[in-house]
């Protein structure tokens, strides 16, 4: 309900401008991030000696995981930067770093040219990507949540995963286009460089767009307060419980998300037996539908709360992962693989659609970006970044089904947290909201 006589929320700070500004950069960030995973099967042999294909994928997956271990550093540095200099400044910096990392991969020399130096360049690029994405998630989640109308935070913040998914879809779409316009030999030789060159150029465009964003009202309020306490570890440690909550509630969600997105294409081609083009098609269609589900689920959380969706994800992932992944192994057609992939992604939507606003709603403004960034990045480094590597390790050991139980177990741990945590839908993020100057969630 709006308080009579109180000014409305400034139009320039709400709906589409904030969502578009925060999301379009996020899209390019995650396009570059996922391009590595999507094209890994083509460039794996370029950076490591010839040998077993699974061993080459393990090497590239290892470098992929290393990028995740840089994310806590990025979460700390860029989360602090966002709390001290502003959400807009942090969003601009993250996309600059991502442009540089994409360019490095596009021009990296191969093993045949310089030996392992090419792999070292690849590793450096992944470290920069990890640094960038470690800050991007928090800056984007915080910006989208703070800039949204209080009654539409779930809906607006869901566009973070919409943009992430669109970035992945662009990568997959480009992959399918290259598969149809280039020979397999050309793709393995140099065609895999194309998406990284595209990502570098796209990031420059987004850099220009993000420079025109408005800062959020919540940060501008805090900017007038004591600057020394903003974005500090000391300030964050006064919210230890919330810190632990973010780590635990992220654990199951990030493992499930990366299992059914970045790893899915490899699983369909390397285990299920689909051709690379069919595996890519399944992932593309499934992710397109998944993308459309995010705002619907986010809007639902604005009505019924965040916890019911999180609990639904926890139960579904805990009980459904083993049956779905086992059934996928026996899928004989593209249609069967698509239906099973969709079932998994519908379950994951309970987490992806609202996790950004849930985390932002747990912390006060002066440590909000850092509070979202650091524990989330730690959880991703430990569980999300290693999901693909763990999956391939189980496969290489001949007990691939062990990975299914691992994913289910991580979801079970997070489910305990969802069942015991407080509801965050009604959290006030600024002084004006606490004073009742803007409509509060129903």
From TrEMBL:
Keyword Cell inner membrane included in the entry's annotation: no
Cellular localization per UniProt: Cell membrane
InterPro entries linked: H+-coupled_symporters, MFS, MFS_dom, MFS_trans_sf, Sugar_transporter_CS
Major location (coarse): membrane
A Pfam family this chain is assigned to: MFS_1
Keywords: Cell membrane, Membrane, Symport, Transmembrane, Transmembrane helix, Transport
Transmembrane segments: 60-78, 90-108, 114-138, 159-178, 190-209, 243-260, 280-297, 309-331, 337-358, 370-391, 403-421
Protein name, per record: MFS transporter
Organism placement in taxonomy: Bacteria, Bacillati, Actinomycetota, Actinomycetes, Streptosporangiales
């Amino acid at each position: 309900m709006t308080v009579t006589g109180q000014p409305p929320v400034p139009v320039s700070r709400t709906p589409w401008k904030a969502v578009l500004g925060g999301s379009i950069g996020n899209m390019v960030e995650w396009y570059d991030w996922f391009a590595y995973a999507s094209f890994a099967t083509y460039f794996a042999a370029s950076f490591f000696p010839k040998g077993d294909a699974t061993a080459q994928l393990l090497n590239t997956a290892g470098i992929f995981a290393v990028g995740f271990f840089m994310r806590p550093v990025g979460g700390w540095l860029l989360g602090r930067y966002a709390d001290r200099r502003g959400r807009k400044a942090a969003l601009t910096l993250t996309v600059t770093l991502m442009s540089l990392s994409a360019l490095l991969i596009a021009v990296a020399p191969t093993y045949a040219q310089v030996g392992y130096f090419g792999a070292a360049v690849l590793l450096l690029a992944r470290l920069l990507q990890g640094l960038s994405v470690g800050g991007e998630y928090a800056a984007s989640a915080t910006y989208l949540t703070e800039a949204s109308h209080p009654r539409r935070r779930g809906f607006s913040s869901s566009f973070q995963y919409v943009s992430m998914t669109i970035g992945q879809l662009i990568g997959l779409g480009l992959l399918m286009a290259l598969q149809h316009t280039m020979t397999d030999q050309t793709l393995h030789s140099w065609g895999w460089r194309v998406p990284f060159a595209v990502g570098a150029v796209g990031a420059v465009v987004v850099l220009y767009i993000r420079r025109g964003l408005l800062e959020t009202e919540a940060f501008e309020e805090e900017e007038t307060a004591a600057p020394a306490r903003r974005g500090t570890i000391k300030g964050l440690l006064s919210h230890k419980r919330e810190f632990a909550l973010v780590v635990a509630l992220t654990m199951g969600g990030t493992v499930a998300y990366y299992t059914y997105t970045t790893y899915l294409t490899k699983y369909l081609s390397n285990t299920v037996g689909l051709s690379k083009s069919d595996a890519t098609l399944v992932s593309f269609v499934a992710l397109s539908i998944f993308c459309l589900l995010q705002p619907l689920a986010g809007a639902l959380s604005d009505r019924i709360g965040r916890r019911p969706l999180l609990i639904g994800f926890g139960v579904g992932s805990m009980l459904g992962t083993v049956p779905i992944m086992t059934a996928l192994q026996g899928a004989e057609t593209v249609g069967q693989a698509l239906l099973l992939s969709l079932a998994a992604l519908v379950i994951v939507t309970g987490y992806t659609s609202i996790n950004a606003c849930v985390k932002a709603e747990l912390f006060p403004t002066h440590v909000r970006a850092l509070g979202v960034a650091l524990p989330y990045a730690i959880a991703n480094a430990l569980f999300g970044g290693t999901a693909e590597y763990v999956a391939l390790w189980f496969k290489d050991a001949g007990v691939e089904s062990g990975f299914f139980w691992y994913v289910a177990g991580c979801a079970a741990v997070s489910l305990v947290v969802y069942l015991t945590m407080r509801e965050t839908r009604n959290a006030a993020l600024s002084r004006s909201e606490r004073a009742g100057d803007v409509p509060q969630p129903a």
